[in-house]
Design a protein that fits this description.
Layout: E1 11-15, H1 48-60, E2 65-69, H2 79-87, E3 94-99, H3 106-115, E4 119-123, H4 129-136, H5 142-154, E5 161-166, H6 175-182, E6 188-193, H7 211-221, E7 224-227, E8 237-241, E9 247-251, E10 264-267, E11 272-274, E12 283-284, H8 285-290, H9 295-307, H10 313-316, H11 328-331
Helix pairs in contact: 1-2, 1-9, 2-3, 3-5
The structure holds S-adenosylmethionine and iron/sulfur cluster (2 copies).
One iron/sulfur cluster binds next to helix 10.
Protein backbone atom coordinates (compact mmCIF):
# COMPACT_ATOMS: atom_id res chain seq x y z
CA UNK A 1 0.00 0.00 0.00
CA UNK A 2 1.59 3.28 -1.13
CA UNK A 3 0.79 6.87 -0.17
CA UNK A 4 0.38 9.65 -2.72
CA UNK A 5 4.19 10.05 -2.89
CA UNK A 6 4.73 6.28 -3.39
CA UNK A 7 5.90 5.61 0.16
CA UNK A 8 4.86 2.25 1.67
CA UNK A 9 3.40 1.92 5.16
CA UNK A 10 6.04 0.04 7.14
CA UNK A 11 6.08 1.10 10.74
CA UNK A 12 3.72 2.18 13.45
CA UNK A 13 4.62 4.12 16.57
CA UNK A 14 2.13 3.85 19.36
CA UNK A 15 2.10 6.33 22.22
CA UNK A 16 0.65 4.54 25.23
CA UNK A 17 0.51 7.43 27.67
CA UNK A 18 0.78 11.21 27.52
CA UNK A 19 2.31 11.37 31.01
CA UNK A 20 5.97 11.58 31.84
CA UNK A 21 8.24 11.57 34.90
CA UNK A 22 10.68 13.95 33.15
CA UNK A 23 10.15 17.52 32.01
CA UNK A 24 12.71 17.69 29.20
CA UNK A 25 13.03 21.31 28.15
CA UNK A 26 12.68 20.50 24.45
CA UNK A 27 9.60 18.30 24.91
CA UNK A 28 7.52 19.03 28.03
CA UNK A 29 8.87 22.27 29.53
CA UNK A 30 7.73 22.63 33.13
CA UNK A 31 6.32 26.11 32.61
CA UNK A 32 3.74 24.57 30.26
CA UNK A 33 3.44 21.10 31.82
CA UNK A 34 3.16 22.16 35.45
CA UNK A 35 1.02 20.85 38.29
CA UNK A 36 -2.19 22.10 36.72
CA UNK A 37 -1.66 20.59 33.33
CA UNK A 38 -4.62 18.39 32.37
CA UNK A 39 -3.35 15.05 31.15
CA UNK A 40 -5.72 12.51 29.59
CA UNK A 41 -8.15 10.64 31.82
CA UNK A 42 -7.73 6.89 32.01
CA UNK A 43 -10.96 6.38 30.06
CA UNK A 44 -9.56 8.42 27.19
CA UNK A 45 -6.57 6.12 26.73
CA UNK A 46 -6.91 3.20 24.36
CA UNK A 47 -7.10 -0.04 26.36
CA UNK A 48 -4.56 -2.79 25.65
CA UNK A 49 -7.27 -4.71 23.79
CA UNK A 50 -8.05 -1.68 21.60
CA UNK A 51 -4.35 -1.11 20.90
CA UNK A 52 -3.85 -4.75 19.96
CA UNK A 53 -6.85 -4.73 17.64
CA UNK A 54 -5.76 -1.57 15.84
CA UNK A 55 -2.16 -2.82 15.67
CA UNK A 56 -3.31 -6.09 14.11
CA UNK A 57 -5.19 -4.19 11.41
CA UNK A 58 -2.09 -2.10 10.71
CA UNK A 59 0.01 -5.24 10.37
CA UNK A 60 -2.56 -6.61 7.91
CA UNK A 61 -2.13 -3.33 5.99
CA UNK A 62 1.65 -3.80 5.71
CA UNK A 63 3.20 -2.68 9.00
CA UNK A 64 6.17 -4.86 9.98
CA UNK A 65 7.54 -2.89 12.88
CA UNK A 66 5.86 -1.44 15.96
CA UNK A 67 7.46 0.84 18.53
CA UNK A 68 5.83 1.78 21.82
CA UNK A 69 6.55 5.25 23.07
CA UNK A 70 4.90 8.17 24.87
CA UNK A 71 5.12 10.20 27.13
CA UNK A 72 7.02 7.68 29.19
CA UNK A 73 5.75 4.22 28.18
CA UNK A 74 7.00 2.50 31.33
CA UNK A 75 4.55 4.60 33.35
CA UNK A 76 1.73 2.55 31.84
CA UNK A 77 1.01 -0.25 34.29
CA UNK A 78 1.69 -3.82 33.11
CA UNK A 79 3.14 -2.68 29.80
CA UNK A 80 4.69 -6.15 29.46
CA UNK A 81 1.15 -7.53 29.05
CA UNK A 82 0.67 -5.27 26.06
CA UNK A 83 4.06 -6.35 24.68
CA UNK A 84 2.98 -9.99 24.94
CA UNK A 85 -0.30 -9.23 23.15
CA UNK A 86 1.48 -7.39 20.33
CA UNK A 87 4.22 -10.01 20.05
CA UNK A 88 1.51 -12.54 19.21
CA UNK A 89 0.40 -10.68 16.06
CA UNK A 90 1.07 -12.75 12.94
CA UNK A 91 3.28 -10.95 10.44
CA UNK A 92 4.82 -8.50 12.90
CA UNK A 93 8.60 -8.73 12.56
CA UNK A 94 9.91 -6.19 15.02
CA UNK A 95 8.68 -4.87 18.35
CA UNK A 96 10.58 -2.07 20.06
CA UNK A 97 10.15 0.49 22.83
CA UNK A 98 11.62 3.94 23.51
CA UNK A 99 12.04 4.99 27.13
CA UNK A 100 13.86 7.47 29.32
CA UNK A 101 14.97 4.43 31.28
CA UNK A 102 14.52 5.45 34.90
CA UNK A 103 11.82 2.84 35.54
CA UNK A 104 13.75 0.09 33.76
CA UNK A 105 14.81 -2.07 36.66
CA UNK A 106 16.45 -5.44 36.07
CA UNK A 107 13.12 -7.15 36.67
CA UNK A 108 11.22 -4.85 34.31
CA UNK A 109 13.80 -5.33 31.54
CA UNK A 110 13.60 -9.10 31.99
CA UNK A 111 9.78 -9.04 31.97
CA UNK A 112 9.72 -6.96 28.77
CA UNK A 113 12.21 -9.22 27.00
CA UNK A 114 10.37 -12.36 28.09
CA UNK A 115 7.09 -10.89 26.86
CA UNK A 116 8.60 -10.57 23.38
CA UNK A 117 10.19 -7.11 23.19
CA UNK A 118 12.94 -7.33 20.58
CA UNK A 119 14.75 -4.00 20.86
CA UNK A 120 14.95 -1.00 23.12
CA UNK A 121 15.99 2.60 22.66
CA UNK A 122 16.94 4.54 25.76
CA UNK A 123 17.14 8.34 25.64
CA UNK A 124 20.14 9.97 27.30
CA UNK A 125 21.16 13.54 26.52
CA UNK A 126 24.14 13.98 28.85
CA UNK A 127 26.66 12.05 30.91
CA UNK A 128 27.44 15.07 33.07
CA UNK A 129 24.89 15.00 35.85
CA UNK A 130 24.32 18.75 36.15
CA UNK A 131 23.67 18.96 32.40
CA UNK A 132 21.42 15.90 32.51
CA UNK A 133 19.33 17.52 35.24
CA UNK A 134 19.17 20.80 33.35
CA UNK A 135 17.83 18.99 30.26
CA UNK A 136 15.36 16.68 31.99
CA UNK A 137 14.28 18.94 34.88
CA UNK A 138 13.43 15.93 37.07
CA UNK A 139 14.73 14.29 40.21
CA UNK A 140 16.74 11.56 38.48
CA UNK A 141 20.41 11.46 37.53
CA UNK A 142 22.37 10.25 34.50
CA UNK A 143 23.51 7.26 36.60
CA UNK A 144 19.89 6.04 36.73
CA UNK A 145 19.79 5.91 32.94
CA UNK A 146 23.22 4.27 32.66
CA UNK A 147 21.96 1.59 35.05
CA UNK A 148 18.91 1.08 32.83
CA UNK A 149 21.16 0.51 29.82
CA UNK A 150 23.01 -2.20 31.76
CA UNK A 151 19.70 -3.72 32.83
CA UNK A 152 18.48 -3.85 29.24
CA UNK A 153 21.72 -5.51 28.12
CA UNK A 154 21.53 -8.03 30.98
CA UNK A 155 18.01 -8.95 29.84
CA UNK A 156 19.30 -9.72 26.34
CA UNK A 157 18.13 -6.46 24.73
CA UNK A 158 21.65 -5.50 23.59
CA UNK A 159 22.80 -3.70 21.57
CA UNK A 160 20.86 -0.81 23.04
CA UNK A 161 20.28 2.30 20.95
CA UNK A 162 20.91 5.44 22.93
CA UNK A 163 19.18 8.56 21.58
CA UNK A 164 20.60 11.96 22.45
CA UNK A 165 18.85 15.17 21.40
CA UNK A 166 21.25 18.10 21.16
CA UNK A 167 20.24 21.68 21.79
CA UNK A 168 22.71 24.52 21.31
CA UNK A 169 23.81 26.08 24.57
CA UNK A 170 22.33 23.24 26.59
CA UNK A 171 24.19 19.99 25.94
CA UNK A 172 26.34 20.12 22.81
CA UNK A 173 29.40 19.75 25.06
CA UNK A 174 28.15 16.24 25.77
CA UNK A 175 28.87 14.96 22.24
CA UNK A 176 32.32 13.58 23.11
CA UNK A 177 31.44 12.28 26.61
CA UNK A 178 28.45 10.40 25.15
CA UNK A 179 30.54 8.98 22.31
CA UNK A 180 33.29 7.98 24.75
CA UNK A 181 30.90 6.34 27.19
CA UNK A 182 29.58 3.92 24.58
CA UNK A 183 32.63 3.36 22.34
CA UNK A 184 33.58 -0.27 22.52
CA UNK A 185 30.40 -1.36 24.32
CA UNK A 186 28.40 -2.48 21.28
CA UNK A 187 25.66 0.05 22.12
CA UNK A 188 24.91 2.68 19.48
CA UNK A 189 24.52 6.37 20.33
CA UNK A 190 22.45 8.38 17.88
CA UNK A 191 22.57 12.14 17.93
CA UNK A 192 19.27 13.78 17.03
CA UNK A 193 18.73 17.33 15.84
CA UNK A 194 16.40 19.39 18.03
CA UNK A 195 13.11 19.53 16.10
CA UNK A 196 10.26 22.03 15.95
CA UNK A 197 7.69 19.47 17.07
CA UNK A 198 4.64 20.97 18.74
CA UNK A 199 4.30 24.57 19.79
CA UNK A 200 5.55 24.54 23.41
CA UNK A 201 9.30 24.12 23.10
CA UNK A 202 10.11 27.53 21.57
CA UNK A 203 12.22 25.92 18.86
CA UNK A 204 14.74 28.11 17.07
CA UNK A 205 16.83 27.13 14.07
CA UNK A 206 19.97 28.55 15.69
CA UNK A 207 19.54 26.08 18.56
CA UNK A 208 19.81 23.09 16.25
CA UNK A 209 23.20 21.38 16.42
CA UNK A 210 23.62 20.00 12.88
CA UNK A 211 24.54 16.35 12.42
CA UNK A 212 27.53 17.51 10.36
CA UNK A 213 28.94 19.26 13.45
CA UNK A 214 28.51 16.08 15.51
CA UNK A 215 30.44 14.09 12.92
CA UNK A 216 33.23 16.68 12.75
CA UNK A 217 33.51 16.82 16.53
CA UNK A 218 33.72 13.07 16.96
CA UNK A 219 35.95 12.37 13.99
CA UNK A 220 38.55 14.88 15.19
CA UNK A 221 38.98 12.60 18.21
CA UNK A 222 38.17 9.21 16.68
CA UNK A 223 38.02 9.02 12.85
CA UNK A 224 34.72 7.81 11.40
CA UNK A 225 33.73 6.03 8.19
CA UNK A 226 30.20 5.91 6.71
CA UNK A 227 28.32 2.62 6.62
CA UNK A 228 25.37 1.60 4.48
CA UNK A 229 21.87 1.81 5.99
CA UNK A 230 20.72 -1.39 7.71
CA UNK A 231 17.45 -1.23 5.75
CA UNK A 232 15.74 0.99 3.17
CA UNK A 233 14.24 4.03 4.83
CA UNK A 234 16.51 4.01 7.91
CA UNK A 235 16.37 7.52 9.31
CA UNK A 236 19.74 7.49 11.07
CA UNK A 237 22.90 7.93 9.01
CA UNK A 238 25.33 5.32 10.28
CA UNK A 239 29.06 5.84 10.88
CA UNK A 240 31.66 3.50 12.35
CA UNK A 241 34.84 4.20 14.22
CA UNK A 242 37.82 3.49 11.96
CA UNK A 243 39.54 1.78 14.91
CA UNK A 244 36.74 -0.80 15.19
CA UNK A 245 35.22 0.53 18.44
CA UNK A 246 31.65 0.36 17.12
CA UNK A 247 29.24 2.75 15.44
CA UNK A 248 27.23 5.92 15.98
CA UNK A 249 24.35 7.54 14.13
CA UNK A 250 23.10 11.02 13.33
CA UNK A 251 19.45 11.84 12.71
CA UNK A 252 19.38 15.03 10.67
CA UNK A 253 15.66 15.65 10.53
CA UNK A 254 16.18 19.40 10.21
CA UNK A 255 19.34 19.91 8.15
CA UNK A 256 18.94 16.91 5.81
CA UNK A 257 15.30 15.79 5.94
CA UNK A 258 14.33 12.31 4.86
CA UNK A 259 10.60 12.64 4.11
CA UNK A 260 11.05 10.73 0.83
CA UNK A 261 11.77 7.61 2.89
CA UNK A 262 9.20 8.19 5.64
CA UNK A 263 7.14 5.03 6.03
CA UNK A 264 5.77 5.71 9.50
CA UNK A 265 2.29 6.10 10.94
CA UNK A 266 1.66 7.23 14.50
CA UNK A 267 -1.12 6.46 16.93
CA UNK A 268 -1.61 8.73 19.94
CA UNK A 269 -2.50 7.39 23.37
CA UNK A 270 -6.13 8.43 22.82
CA UNK A 271 -6.32 6.71 19.47
CA UNK A 272 -5.74 9.44 16.90
CA UNK A 273 -3.91 8.39 13.76
CA UNK A 274 -1.24 10.78 12.44
CA UNK A 275 0.84 10.43 9.32
CA UNK A 276 3.46 13.06 10.17
CA UNK A 277 5.27 14.14 13.31
CA UNK A 278 4.38 17.70 12.43
CA UNK A 279 0.69 17.21 11.74
CA UNK A 280 -1.86 19.58 13.18
CA UNK A 281 -4.69 17.06 13.21
CA UNK A 282 -5.27 13.31 13.03
CA UNK A 283 -7.99 10.76 12.40
CA UNK A 284 -9.94 9.53 15.42
CA UNK A 285 -9.68 5.73 15.38
CA UNK A 286 -10.86 5.43 18.99
CA UNK A 287 -14.28 6.83 18.12
CA UNK A 288 -14.51 4.33 15.29
CA UNK A 289 -13.50 1.41 17.49
CA UNK A 290 -15.81 2.44 20.31
CA UNK A 291 -18.73 2.94 17.93
CA UNK A 292 -18.65 -0.79 17.23
CA UNK A 293 -17.09 -0.60 13.75
CA UNK A 294 -16.01 -3.96 12.35
CA UNK A 295 -12.46 -4.76 11.22
CA UNK A 296 -13.19 -4.00 7.58
CA UNK A 297 -14.46 -0.52 8.38
CA UNK A 298 -11.37 0.28 10.47
CA UNK A 299 -9.05 -1.18 7.83
CA UNK A 300 -10.73 0.97 5.17
CA UNK A 301 -10.08 4.12 7.17
CA UNK A 302 -6.42 3.16 7.72
CA UNK A 303 -6.03 2.45 4.01
CA UNK A 304 -7.69 5.65 2.85
CA UNK A 305 -5.70 7.80 5.30
CA UNK A 306 -2.42 6.27 4.11
CA UNK A 307 -3.28 6.36 0.40
CA UNK A 308 -4.05 10.07 0.51
CA UNK A 309 -1.04 10.99 2.65
CA UNK A 310 1.21 13.67 1.15
CA UNK A 311 3.13 14.87 4.24
CA UNK A 312 6.68 16.13 3.88
CA UNK A 313 6.87 18.83 6.48
CA UNK A 314 10.63 18.73 7.05
CA UNK A 315 11.37 19.19 3.37
CA UNK A 316 9.00 22.15 3.16
CA UNK A 317 9.71 23.63 6.61
CA UNK A 318 11.20 26.89 5.41
CA UNK A 319 8.28 27.64 3.08
CA UNK A 320 5.40 26.76 5.38
CA UNK A 321 3.44 29.29 7.41
CA UNK A 322 3.69 28.58 11.13
CA UNK A 323 0.75 26.58 12.42
CA UNK A 324 -0.28 24.88 15.63
CA UNK A 325 1.21 21.38 15.63
CA UNK A 326 0.63 18.33 17.78
CA UNK A 327 3.04 17.93 20.70
CA UNK A 328 5.70 15.19 20.78
CA UNK A 329 4.47 13.74 24.09
CA UNK A 330 1.01 13.39 22.51
CA UNK A 331 1.92 11.89 19.17
CA UNK A 332 4.88 9.86 20.46
CA UNK A 333 8.53 10.46 19.57
N1 LIG B 1 9.84 9.33 27.16
C1 LIG B 1 10.50 8.46 26.23
C2 LIG B 1 11.89 8.95 25.95
O1 LIG B 1 12.22 10.09 26.23
O2 LIG B 1 12.65 8.14 25.41
C3 LIG B 1 9.74 8.25 24.94
C4 LIG B 1 9.03 9.41 24.34
S1 LIG B 1 10.08 10.74 23.80
C5 LIG B 1 8.91 11.88 23.13
C6 LIG B 1 10.86 9.98 22.39
C7 LIG B 1 12.08 10.68 21.86
O3 LIG B 1 11.72 11.93 21.33
C8 LIG B 1 13.17 10.94 22.90
O4 LIG B 1 14.39 10.37 22.50
C9 LIG B 1 13.26 12.44 22.92
O5 LIG B 1 14.55 12.88 23.19
C10 LIG B 1 12.79 12.82 21.55
N2 LIG B 1 12.31 14.19 21.45
C11 LIG B 1 11.38 14.80 22.20
N3 LIG B 1 11.20 16.09 21.81
C12 LIG B 1 12.07 16.30 20.79
C13 LIG B 1 12.39 17.42 19.96
N4 LIG B 1 11.77 18.58 20.10
N5 LIG B 1 13.31 17.26 18.99
C14 LIG B 1 13.94 16.06 18.83
N6 LIG B 1 13.68 14.98 19.56
C15 LIG B 1 12.77 15.09 20.54
FE1 LIG C 1 9.35 12.69 28.78
FE2 LIG C 1 10.59 11.57 26.76
FE3 LIG C 1 9.47 14.01 26.49
FE4 LIG C 1 11.63 13.74 28.00
S1 LIG C 1 11.50 13.36 25.81
S2 LIG C 1 9.76 14.85 28.56
S3 LIG C 1 11.38 11.73 28.84
S4 LIG C 1 8.41 12.11 26.84
FE1 LIG D 1 7.94 11.86 7.98
FE2 LIG D 1 6.68 14.15 8.49
FE3 LIG D 1 9.14 13.70 9.46
FE4 LIG D 1 8.82 14.12 6.85
S1 LIG D 1 8.42 15.57 8.47
S2 LIG D 1 10.09 12.52 7.82
S3 LIG D 1 6.83 13.12 6.51
S4 LIG D 1 7.28 12.56 9.99
Amino acid sequence: MLDSLSRPLHDLRISITDRCNFRCVYCMPREVFGRDFAFMDRAELLTFEEIERIARLFVAAGVEKIRLTGGEPLLRRDVEKLIAMLAGIDGLRDLALTTNGVLLTREKAKALAEAGLKRITISLDAIDDATFRRVTDASFGAADVLRAIDNAAAAGLAPVKIDAVLKRGLNEREILPLAKQFRGTGHIVRFIEFMDVGSSNRWRMDEVVPGSEVLETISREWPLEPIAPAYAGEVAERWRYADGAGEIGVITSVTRPFCGACTRARLSADGELFTCLFASSGRDLRALVRSGADDDAIRNVITSVWRTRDDRYSELRADLPSSRKVEMWHIGG
